[in-house]
Design goal:
By secondary structure, the chain is α/β, with parallel strands linked by helices. The protein folds into two domains: 124 residues, NADH:ubiquinone oxidoreductase Nqo5 subunit (Beta Polymerase, domain 2, 2-Layer Sandwich), CATH 3.30.460.80; 102 residues, no CATH class.
């Protein structure tokens, strides 16, 4: 199928590859609608069914806050990811040359019994937009709404692009990497106003570090003696 896609010569298609028997490729956002139509209607590809759409945020991609050093249980103690910001913290700017947001499509060709993954990057990091494929695959309607709701990716041409999972008046997009783990606001019932009110969150994000019983082989003889002496005194 990878050879067939390359042979068809669809405009905007790049990085066609097969890894672990999974076909994936990228399509330029400007050429996406024409490419999607060709992928559906060309007999050599025949991707007649859209299985799923999901958004991806590449902010802090490749960063890891769970690395251990030469000694000590330090992973997760220090904040490294932007997602652990507190309310009011300013998010750092995205400094990568790669676009931050992408929309990923899972396609199925029933005729050829082949699945494919298409990745389309939004060119504007501040206002990410990719074309809507609801006119090509009707199953994209709710999937695009979900991606818009959770990651703030706008699908140009969608006739009913509104939130799908979050509450009315929800602030932000919860699957973005710079969205605080504690959220932006919290709600409670105010007995004086006799209604539910929203206010800034009052809790701080934290990471629970489990207690670890170390193997004595990793401890120096002095540490072992001190620990045993403390137990005897207790």
């Amino acid at each position: 199928m990878a050879a067939a896609i390359s042979a068809v010569g669809i405009a905007g298609v790049s990085k066609v590859q097969v890894d672990n028997d999974e076909l994936s490729f990228e399509v330029d956002a400007d050429d996406f609608l024409a490419a999607a139509l060709e992928l559906r209607d060309n007999p050599a590809t025949s991707f007649e069914q859209l299985i799923d759409i999901c958004g991806v945020d590449y902010l802090s991609y490749g960063q890891d806050e769970w690395e251990t050093g030469g000694s000590g249980f330090s992973r997760g103690v220090s904040k490294a990811s932007i997602g652990r910001m507190s309310f009011g913290d300013e998010a750092p700017e995205y400094d990568s040359d790669t676009p931050r947001f992408a929309s990923v499509y899972q396609l199925l060709s029933i005729q050829h019994n082949v699945r494919a993954r298409i990745k389309v990057f939004a060119k504007d990091n501040e206002f990410p937009v990719v074309p809507s494929v609801t006119s090509i695959w009707s199953s994209a309607e709710w999937a695009e709404r979900e991606s818009f709701d959770l990651l703030g990716i706008h699908y140009d041409g969608h006739t009913d692009l509104r939130r799908l999972l979050t509450d009315y008046g929800f602030v932000g997009h919860p699957f973005r990497k710079d969205f605080p783990l504690v959220g932006n606001v919290e709600m409670r019932y105010d007995p004086k106003k006799k209604r539910v009110i929203y206010e800034p969150v009052t809790i701080e994000p934290r990471v629970l570090v489990p207690r670890v019983i170390r193997n004595t082989a990793r401890r120096t003889s002095e540490e072992v003696s001190t620990a045993e002496e403390g137990q005897n005194n207790a």
